[in-house]
Amino acid sequence: MTETRSATPTLNRWRRLSRRVLLPLAVLVLLAALAVTGYARFAGSPASAERPFHWDGSTAYVAGGHTPGTYTTCEITPNNGKPRILKVPGSSGGVSLEPWFKGTAEITCGRSVLVTTGMPSSLYPVVSQQAFLVGIAALAVLAWWCGRMPRARLSADDPFCRKSVE
User: Fold this and answer.
1) Helix (H, G, I), strand (E, B), or coil: what is residue 91?
2) Is residue 2 one of the residues assigned to a domain?
3) What is the pLDDT of residue 4?
4) Of 63, 61, 88, which Cα lies nearest the Cα of 75?
C-alpha cells in the first residue's frame, strides 16, 4: 500500500503535530487527572466510632465504605446547633454536606468513612465516578498507541494514529 505524493505533506504535518503537540498534551492531561484523583482521594480523613472527625464547618463530602448496597449511619454533633443523623451509601458514592450551624462539629460513624473538606470535597464526587476513571484509562491507551512507534506512518484513510505499510 503506497501513499500518493500529494497526501504525504499533509500526513507528515499530522504526524509531526501528533508527536510534538497531541501526545505531550495527552500525557500532561493524563498526569493532571491522576494528580487530581490522588489529591481528592487521599486528602480526606477517616471518621468512625473510635476516631470521630472534627469538622471545621466548611463544605464537606462524606464517602462511604466499599461494600455495595450498605449504608453507614453517622451522627453529626455541632457545638452550636441540633445534631443530625446522616446515612452514607456504600461503594456507590457519598454525601455532600453544607453546614447548618456556626462553628465546629464532630462526625461519628458506625463504620469507617472518609471525610474530605475544602477543595477536595468538590473534586471527590467527580473523580470517584466510573466514567472519569474510564476516560483516564482511554486517554492512557490513546497516548501509548499514538506514541509507541516513532517511525509509524499514518494512513490516508484514518489519520488517527493508524499505521500503514511504507
Assistant:
1) coil
2) no
3) 47
4) 88
Q: How far apart are CA 162 and CA 116, in angstroms?
A: 43
Place of cell 456507590: 92
Q: The domain containing residue 160 runs over which residues? A: 8-39+131-164
Contact between 79 and 103 (Cβ < 8 Å): yes
Angle at which helix 119-127 crosses helix 130-147, to 10 degrees, equals: 70
CB 77 within 8 A of CB 105: yes
What digits encode the pLDDT tens for the residues 101-119? 999 999 999 888 889 888 8
Dist CA 111 CA 134 (whole Å): 29
Does some domain include residue 48?
Answer: yes
Amino acid at 64: G
- Number of domains into which the chain is organized: 2
Residues 153, 139 within the same domain: yes
pTM for the model: 0.63
